[in-house]
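Please fill in the sequence for the structure shown.

STRUCTURE ENCODING:
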């Protein structure tokens, strides 16, 4: 009987080790994206039209979440409203901007550039003036991931 219980104990031990090894190998796999997130690069904010109390923010937003998503909105305590905007083609140097109402698709592994002359975040109704070096908290709302808070530095010299 004792020999049988020893064999069972050894089998159970190796079975548990196999489970542990399987879990560890999955966590170390490049396919594991559990620690992945949205990556923000090259971000900065500045004044859009100082006399109107508006600001803009630019960045490169990269999706490393392991699934496709869509940026649908943004908010910030800095202003009454934050809009996703796109600068269109204009004549004689006047390029109109319009609101992006259907969001911005962001497939997994892809990036989207918010840059002068293109897509940007527009802050209207600023609650405080911008100061060089200030850090602005912005909440990006994604269709699948939900709310993601990012930090954007103010650079009034660009």
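FILLED IN BY: designer on duty
SEQUENCE:
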């Amino acid at each position: 009987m004792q020999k049988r219980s020893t064999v069972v104990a050894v089998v159970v031990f190796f079975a548990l080790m196999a489970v542990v090894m399987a879990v560890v190998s999955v966590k170390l796999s490049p396919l594991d994206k559990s620690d992945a997130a949205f990556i923000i690069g090259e971000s900065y904010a500045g004044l859009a039209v100082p006399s109107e109390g508006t600001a803009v923010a630019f960045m490169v937003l990269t999706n490393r979440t392991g699934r496709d998503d869509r940026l649908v909105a943004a908010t910030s305590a800095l202003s009454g409203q934050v809009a996703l905007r796109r600068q269109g083609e204009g004549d004689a140097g006047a390029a109109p901007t319009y609101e992006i109402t259907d969001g911005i698709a962001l497939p997994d592994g892809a990036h989207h550039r918010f840059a002068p002359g293109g897509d940007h975040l527009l802050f209207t109704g600023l609650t405080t003036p911008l100061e060089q070096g200030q850090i602005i908290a912005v909440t990006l709302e994604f269709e699948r991931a939900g709310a993601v808070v990012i930090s954007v530095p103010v650079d009034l010299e660009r």
